[in-house]
Write a structure and sequence with these properties.
With 298 residues, the chain is α/β, with parallel strands linked by helices. The strands form three sheets. It has a six-stranded parallel sheet, sandwiched between helices.
Length: 298
């Protein structure tokens, strides 16, 4: 079966400092180690899906600069179709400033740059309509995210929204019923209720599709209609950097669903991918190949 996944999302370069501890507001922490990694939630998710065996098309935007050239080359090296990634003159390629602590925890600040200019056209909508699954997120313009979900739904294509970074979810997106994959922070922001259990109840009442609340090492909670089921986390043999673990989850979820697996089977595989991804520095280096995902899902 074809496994065509279209990802509409951000393409960034990550500037990473690993430190003995993360700073509190107003504090400077010295002694960190600096590295540069390819990133962006959309691009990370595209790589995760590609390594899981999917045919992936990336829709996004980069600046006409060295960071943009690097980002496109990295995606193409993974076998990802970048023909729908725009090169724009008006903005630089997006940049994320990432601080990583000793247990792999992180703090991230993103300058969206070219990502914020993304607007879908008819060619994009046609490509979305040819896919088995479409995955998008909040690191591009809000209208691009909404249009991607509209196009997917119009074509009968599985739509997944990773609502990150956290922001309120508009009624139209909820009415379209994409699969939502918030973490617990994104859940409470999406619905405007700081009590996690109440926020989930509220979101379930307003949303017409499945909700998968990712909980890191604790696994994931699936809410689908009247059903609620917890999928336990997978032991991570080594935790170096948790940056990108959620992206690994989403990309593999999309790949598995595109191949025709059930939602339950796809959540299990995505949990495995998220756990395996934290063993290497950077958002992408640890993203697992299909063989490792299948072995961990058995």
């Amino acid at each position: 079966m074809s496994m065509h996944v279209v990802v509409i999302g951000s393409v960034n370069v990550d500037l990473v400092v690993a430190a003995d501890r993360l700073p509190v507001p107003g504090e400077t922490v010295l002694g960190g180690r600096f590295s540069v990694h390819d990133g962006g939630k959309g691009a990370n998710q595209a790589v995760a899906a590609a390594r899981a065996g999917a045919q992936v098309t990336m829709i996004g935007a980069v600046g006409n600069d060295a960071h943009g050239a690097r980002s496109l080359a990295a995606l193409e090296a993974e076998g990802i179709d970048t023909s729908r990634v725009r090169r724009v003159e008006s903005e630089p390629t997006g940049v994320a400033i990432v601080a990583v602590g000793p247990r792999g925890e992180n703090q991230i600040v993103v300058a969206p740059g070219a990502n914020a200019t993304l607007a879908l056209d008819q060619a994009d909508r046609e490509i979305i309509g040819s896919a088995q699954a479409v995955l998008t997120n909040h690191e591009v313009a809000a209208e691009a995210t909404l249009e991607a979900i509209r196009a997917a739904r119009a074509a009968g294509v599985i739509a997944i929204l990773n609502p990150a970074p956290a922001r309120a979810l508009p009624a139209e997106i909820l009415s379209l019923g994409p699969i939502l994959t918030p973490n617990e922070h994104e859940l409470v922001v999406a619905i405007g209720n700081e009590v996690t259990s109440e926020a989930l109840d509220d979101l379930q009442a307003r949303h017409s599709g499945p909700i998968i609340v990712t909980q890191g090492a604790a696994g994931a909670l699936l809410v689908d209609g009247q059903r609620r089921e917890r999928f336990p986390g997978v032991h991570a043999p080594q935790v170096v950097d948790t940056t990108g673990a959620g992206d690994a989850f989403c990309g593999v979820l999309a790949a598995w669903l595109a191949e025709g697996h059930t939602l339950d089977e796809s959540v299990v595989a995505a949990n495995v991918a998220g756990a395996l991804s934290v063993a290497s520095p950077g958002a992408r280096d640890g993203m697992p190949r299909r063989e490792a995902i299948e072995a961990g899902s058995a």
